[in-house]
Amino acid sequence: MGRVSTTVAGVAALASLFVPDVAAQSCPGVSGRYQPKMGSGYRASVLATGLRQPRHLVIDSAGNLLVAEGGSQNVRRIVLQENGDNVCAGSSSTLSGTSTNHGIALSADGNTLFTSTLANVIAYSYNPSTGAVGTGKQIVQGMSNTGTHPTRAIATSKFSPDTILVARGSNGNIDTSTTDKSSGRSMIKTFSISQGQQTAHQYNTGGEVLAWGLRNIVGLTEDPVYGGIWSVENQMDDVRLSGRDIHNNNPAERLSYHGALSGGPNGTATNRYKGLNYGYPSCVPAWDPQNVGLQNVVVGTLFKPDGVPNANDCATRMPGRLHFHAHTAPLDIKFNANATQAYIAFHGSWNRNPADGYRVMRVDFGPDGQPVHDVSSKTAQVPVMENGNIGGCPNNCFRPVGLAFDSKGRLYVSSDTSGEIYVIYGA
Question: pTM value?
Fold first, then answer.
């Protein structure tokens, strides 16, 4: 028997935000704490406040919003209601017995809910209409770290529906043991869902390595049209080169491409991207080549900083597809329905002065399923939602974490530090 979610106090509804040339609208309820600055053609409103560190998000097949609520370690289900041109929160409930600190995903048929914790990936039967969940079963185990990076980004595939992707970060800023693939860290692996439901996979020894040499992947997704797998990475802190402190503007954060899983429109049995190494911990990508000060370095060029293991030729490692400002901390990426745009949540810096990030940005894609901008571009990001006063960050601003699109193309954004969910219209 499934366990019906336990209803708690209703979620606060939409609050108006001031956006140039767009009439402010709201739903009854508590206003949000901040008024974001919106990019051209976008408007936003606050759907929910008072959540406990909301992290990743997903929309179920009945149109409800599921939130990985890191502060409570549970999944919250928000029933959405139409209100004119806006969407409002009709009710809020906790899915009883669920456990997560960050990751959440649904199976291709929408009837299985997956969550991630520090150590495990857990599967629950799920009824989108009622919110009933079954008893959780661990399908991936053995992911605990003794150091930093406790999040485990997860994603499922509509083109390869028996596959779940699981990212595990490094054990510290410079995790030297990850030069060995058998460490089971700083990588993305794929696992069979059906096999895991029979006998749980062990992360280190089970599954298949899709990509490694990736310091800390906190968001990954599948392109809904071409089937490509994409990840966003948080790169190294406090980087020095030849004794010089270059950390303020280096290294770059990174968007990486990992090919299509078998079964996708571009998927083959021999994905040429499968198993590639992206350089960490020995090689990091440049954001400010002049500050790096080496010859033949452009944005995205991999170089060897101080204090890392001896590198094989960094030129032989797989580069990112696009790069972003240092320390802006991209935590999620989601595509619109026709895969012409990818939206990225930048949680914001702690290792930079002045602070940077704290925004949602857009990257445009072409008909080949790839970004329209070159790998070394510094102008690939289009502003969508930013803090009006970044000087108040990180404590007095919104910090985007998770993203999810609904069937009407509305983009939901979680802010963990402020406990809010925003809705962006025009995406």
Answer: 0.93
Domain annotation for the chain: domains and CATH numbers: 6-425 (2.120.10.30)
Rounded Cα gap, residues 416 and 202, in angstroms: 30
Tokens of 274: 């499968």
Q: How confident is the prediction along the chain (427 residues), in pLDDT tens digits per residue?
A: 444 444 333 333 323 222 332 333 566 664 788 889 999 999 999 999 999 999 999 999 999 999 999 999 999 999 999 988 889 999 999 999 999 999 999 999 999 999 999 999 999 999 999 999 999 999 999 999 987 899 999 999 999 999 999 999 999 999 999 999 999 999 999 999 999 999 999 999 999 999 999 999 999 999 999 999 999 999 999 999 999 999 999 999 999 999 999 756 666 667 999 999 999 999 999 999 999 999 999 999 999 999 999 887 899 999 999 999 999 999 999 999 999 999 999 999 989 989 899 999 999 999 999 999 999 999 999 999 999 999 899 989 999 999 999 999 999 999 999 999 999 999 8
- CA dist 6 → 79, 103, 126, 379, 409 (Å): 13, 21, 14, 46, 29
Would you state the structure tokens that stand for residue 30, as one six-digit string?
Answer: 């508590």
